Amino acid sequence: MSVIRLEYRRVSMHFMQGGNGRLTAVQDVSVAVGDGEVVSLIGPSGCGKSTLLNIGSGLTAPSEGDAFVDGERVQGPNAHVAFMLQKDLLLPWRTIAENVAFGVEIQGVAAPERKRRAQALLENLNLAEFAGHYPHQLSGGMRQRVALARTLAVDPTVLLLDEPFSAVDAQTRMVLQRELAQTLKRSGKTALLITHDLQEAVTLSDRVLVMSKRPGRIIDEIAIDIPDRDDPLKRRQHPKVNDIVNRLMERLDIGAPDDAVQGRA
Amino acid sequence: MRQGAAASVALLIAFLAAWEWGPGLLGIPSFIVPPLSMVADEAVRMWHVSGLAFHTGITAIEVLAGFVIGSLLGAFIGYLLGMSPVAEIALSPYILALQIAPKVAFAPLFIMWMGFTVYPKILVAILIVFFPVMINVLTAVRTVDPDLVNLARAFKASRAQIFWKIEFPASLPPLFAGLRIGSTLAVVGVVVGELVGGNLGLGYLLSFGEGQANTPMVFVAIVMLTVVGAIAYLLVILIERRVLHYLPKRIQTGF
Ligand SMILES: Nc1ncnc2c1ncn2[C@@H]1O[C@H](COP(=O)(O)OP(=O)(O)OP(=O)(O)O)[C@@H](O)[C@H]1O
Ligand SMILES: [Mg+2]
Known about the structure:
A: Rossmann fold, four-stranded antiparallel sheet, 10 helices, B: mainly alpha, globular, binds magnesium ion
């Protein structure tokens, strides 16, 4: 493998539960993501996926183990990573261009350069004509694209994406998936994508990691050796996709009686 | 929209007509409810004889001073407590007690302290405006989406940047809701102060008219107080429209 951009080394995370002991969200997770690689992380709800993302972005410190970005140990927020969530988190009082420039503004980039970067990104994502609009004037899919532009504006080496498209409709999602795939390919960014959409995981990534129920551990890893990573719509047609999705479903125990009982409890 | 405005004007005309001719038709004596024209005549008389403009001006200045100082204090303390949970826990019992205490009851005390000047009236207004503004700001700062704060933190924002770029702008809509309430309460505080003591302001004219059994004079004072309050309220809305211009139109209410 080439240079490792994002790495979790034996990471565990415990949360204190009000008085009655602690909850282990993530248990002994080790992951390495190489330069330009896109890795998806799937697993049942509550297994600690978002927790891993927060650790990678430096917002929370792991209880045990370490995270590394670009070879440096993560000791707090840093400029090498940027994240994007299911919520677009656009600031309603800022125009679209100002929202895209939010990160670089905080990092102290000068105004003309901020404008230039925001404009270029908006053009890439076909949003140039909305630069002066306010978020409430845009559709959900467009807002999510603006959030992607804001994430890219700080030019991170690693993107952490937490269910970025789960709140948009199925058609918009396909469009956004393709835009993301092309952007990642074009810029050669490394990405960790959390998703509940197995097809999305398979069509967008080079590798899929499967996590167990809480306490979350990595229980499987599947390399996706299908061509056209920058074209999820084309990839979707590939006969291998269904086999992999089925295998992932099996690993996740979807439809197993054990799971059904748990769901009712 | 247009229909609503037309209906509003029609209602106003109906109301004024009812005021003018209603008492006569119902046989209500004019010392109980004086008709509109009588109140208007009295307003003209007061303008020339009783210094209506002067007293209205005094009240307006007291309302403005009380409102501005009370709002600034309320907002400042609101942001302070919003950002420091320790301070909030330490101060909240006292703030709660002060909030429950009827603020207008302080008017006689303030007058005993400061005499028959404008200052005790302003002080009552400050006290009464303070709470809705402070509570709204405090709640707003507390309920800012933590994911927004995390987003800023992930970009390595400083505490000051988080405040100025996230918490402060996010708190503006509730702040303005508090200011609207405060602008009307300021008039209440000032009038109570003026009623309790002194010979200044519309509250003084109100109690003077009452002493003279001059019902039209009392009506004039009430109308002028409403005008002062309405102007304060409209000014807040005007500023709010400017500042919160980015909000979708349907969220901005007419009044
Ligand atoms: N700050 C916290 N304090 C206490 N417990 C927490 C905290 N954050 C997460 N947890 C717990 O850790 C576990 C993992 O949470 P996490 O959000 O990482 O799950 P997830 O895999 O992202 O789930 P989902 O797929 O539903 O988003 C959950 O049981 C959650 O309740
Ligand atoms: Mg999650």
